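Input (structure):
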């Protein structure tokens, strides 16, 4: 009787090990697919937020935010994802949201963080800056140098 119990336990252990190997293999395939999808979405986001924003800014921003939300929902958001969403929030004048996404990692642009903090105080969340404050912001971006002229153009959309 004890021999049969031992054989059955050995068989169950073998079966459990086989299932574990199968699970680990499938999990590996899943991770490859997730990483491939992430790389695809990352490339797509660069196109939306860096190129299409000039052609169709509203649609580009909405598609970018939707794709970023998918990544954040289905995967732990890494610094790049949070930084990209903060950048888009900044361009959309959602400075409070930009500050939230910029905080917590060292990847955020210190100049954009400073400006987001400055202009978050100057307007009501969900609204756009007044013409006067928008001119101040554009002047501030212009004063940061040529590397910020793209953001300046995007904000004038």
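Output (sequence):
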């Amino acid at each position: 009787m004890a021999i049969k119990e031992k054989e059955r336990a050995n068989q169950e252990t073998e079966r459990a090990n086989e299932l574990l190997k199968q699970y680990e293999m499938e999990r590996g395939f899943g991770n490859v697919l997730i990483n491939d999808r992430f790389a695809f979405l990352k490339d797509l986001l660069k196109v939306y937020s860096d190129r299409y924003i000039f052609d169709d800014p509203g649609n580009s921003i909405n598609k970018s935010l939707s794709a970023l939300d998918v990544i954040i929902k289905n995967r732990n958001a890494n610094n790049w994802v949070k930084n990209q969403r903060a950048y888009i929030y900044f361009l959309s004048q959602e400075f409070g949201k930009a500050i939230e996404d910029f905080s917590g990692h060292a990847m955020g642009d210190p100049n954009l963080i400073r400006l987001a903090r400055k202009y978050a105080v100057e307007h009501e969340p969900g609204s756009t800056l007044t013409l006067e404050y928008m001119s101040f912001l554009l002047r501030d971006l212009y004063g940061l140098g040529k590397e910020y002229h793209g953001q300046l153009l995007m904000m004038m959309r």
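Notes: Residues 111 and 144 are 8 Å apart (CA to CA). The longest helix spans residues 2-55.
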